[in-house]
Design a protein that fits this description.
alpha+beta, seven-stranded mixed beta sheet, 158 residues, 40% helix, 7 strands
Length: 158
């Protein structure tokens, strides 16, 4: 029971960090893809990207996605409380019914959600809107409150 409580605290801290980062990036219209691994590992994608293995922190996420830096293109993959890699590139979804206003970043996020059970947060460079993908579905223009609810549902094992 104490271990489970401690684990829940770590997850809550991670959720707060992800919300803070998404809000910061969205307010500045800095594009980002943050993928949270669940049951299916994304090892092949981690292997083909820039390996990090660092704690999930606001400062690191902010730095990775800062425009015109070496790692800002592509996605970050999070496993547990660690950023496993940056600059991961996903096969974009081939769906024909994706609304036109979604660009390559969103198509990539939908693509990874079609190939795994991962949960992905996308920040639009154009609008600053936050979207999420899971199970081949995108939810656009998500509020911070909705993002928190989704992260709670996706990350907290009851």
């Amino acid at each position: 029971e104490p271990y489970r409580r401690q684990r829940q605290m770590c997850i809550r801290d991670r959720i707060e960090t992800l919300i803070k980062a998404a809000e910061h990036l969205a307010n500045r219209k800095i594009g980002a893809i943050i993928t949270i691994e669940k049951e299916h590992t994304l090892n092949t994608l981690v292997e083909g990207s820039v390996k990090l293995d660092a704690l999930v922190t606001f400062e690191l996420l902010e730095t990775i996605f800062h425009p015109n830096t070496a790692l800002h293109d592509g996605a970050v993959i999070i496993r547990g409380n660690r950023i496993k890699c940056a600059s991961a590139f996903y096969q974009p979804s081939q769906k024909k019914d994706i609304p036109q206003h979604y660009g390559s970043r969103h198509r990539a996020a939908i693509g990874i959600s079609e190939q795994s059970d991962a949960f992905t947060i996308v920040v639009s460079e154009e609008t600053g809107h936050i979207a999420t993908t899971i199970g081949g579905t995108i939810t656009g223009n998500v509020s911070l409150e909705s993002l928190k609810t989704s992260l709670d549902q996706q990350l907290i094992v009851r």
